[in-house]
Amino acid sequence: MAEKEDLKIALVGDIHGFWNSSDTRYFSESDYDALIFTGDLGRIPARSSLPVARRISKVQKLGFLIPGNNDGPSILARLFEMFGGSSYENRVSLFLLERRMRFLEKYLAPIRTLGYSIQEEIPGVSLLGARPLAMGSGLSFFPYIQKRFGISTLQGSERLLLSLSEKIDLGVRDLIVVAHNGPSGLGVRAKDIWGCDFRKEAGDFGDEDLGNFVSVSSSLNRKPKVVIAGHMHHSSRSGKIHSRIWKVRKDGILFVNAARVPRIFQDQNGNTWHHHVELTRKNGNWEAEARFLRNGMEGIFPLPDFLEREKRNILEI
C-alpha cells in the first residue's frame, strides 16, 4: 500500500449568508489543500444562495460543495415537502428547483458540486457525495431526486451509494463521505451530533440511507475514514446554547458536523469570530479541530470560555 501524504482540508458548515471578503482572502492565502462546504449557503429565500455561491467561488483553492435543502428549493417547495401539495404545485416546484440548481452550479464554478458522485482530485482521497438537498426524516424533494438521479426510495439511495463506493480502490485512497444531513445511528438526544432538537421527545434525525450505507460498508470492511455533514446546527433549540456534540469517533470512523450557525459572530467584548473545522491527515490518521479566527485573522490568542467549551464538545464511542 502506498503511503498517503499528509493533508489539511477546511470544512465550512452551513453558511446561511455568513461569508465575507475576509473569508475569501483568508482561505485563498491559507495552506489548505482543499475546502469542503456542507451546503445551505443562503438564508430563507432560495435565491439568496446564489450571491453567496458567487462569493465562495472566488476562493483560490480546490473546492467541493454538497447542496443543502436551502440551496434550491423555494419556501413553498419546503412547505410542500413538510405538509404536501397538489400535483400541479409539485410540478411547478420541480421546474423551479431544476432551474435554481442549474444556476447554483453555474455560480459555484469552479467549485465542484457533489451528489451521488465521486471526486478524486485531492491526493489519496475519494470524496463520495451523498444525497443532496437532504433535510432529515425521509427522501426529501422526491420528484427532483427521482428525475435527476433515478432514486425513488431510501433503499435505492443506499444501494446507489454502495455501488459508487465499490468503484473506489481503498488500498490507495481514503474514502470521505460528504453529505448535507448526517447519518442516522449516532444518538437520539437533542444534543447528539445529528439528534433532533426541535421536538420535545428529541430522537435521531440522521438520514437512514446514509446510516445504513455506513453500517453495511463497515461490515464489508470498506468503511469510510471520515463522514462530513451539517444541517443540524450546533446551537440547540432546547434552551442550551451551542450544546450540540459536533465530532464523534465511532468504530474507527470520524464523524464531523461542521454547521456552527452563525459561523461569523461577536463576543461580549466586540471581537468578531469566524468558524470552520480543520480536517487533517497525518501519518495516515484523520483528525478534526474546530478553528475560530478572531476578526478574520489567524493568530495565537486565548479563546473565550464559551468557545473553549464548544471545541471540547466531542464524543468517543
UniProtKB/TrEMBL annotation:
Signal peptide span: none
Protein name in UniProt: Calcineurin-like phosphoesterase domain-containing protein
Residues of the Calcineurin-like phosphoesterase domain: 7-234
Pfam family of the protein (one): Metallophos
Domain of life: Bacteria
InterPro entries: Calcineurin-like_PHP (IPR004843), DevT-like (IPR027629), Metallo-depent_PP-like (IPR029052)
GO MF annotation list: hydrolase activity
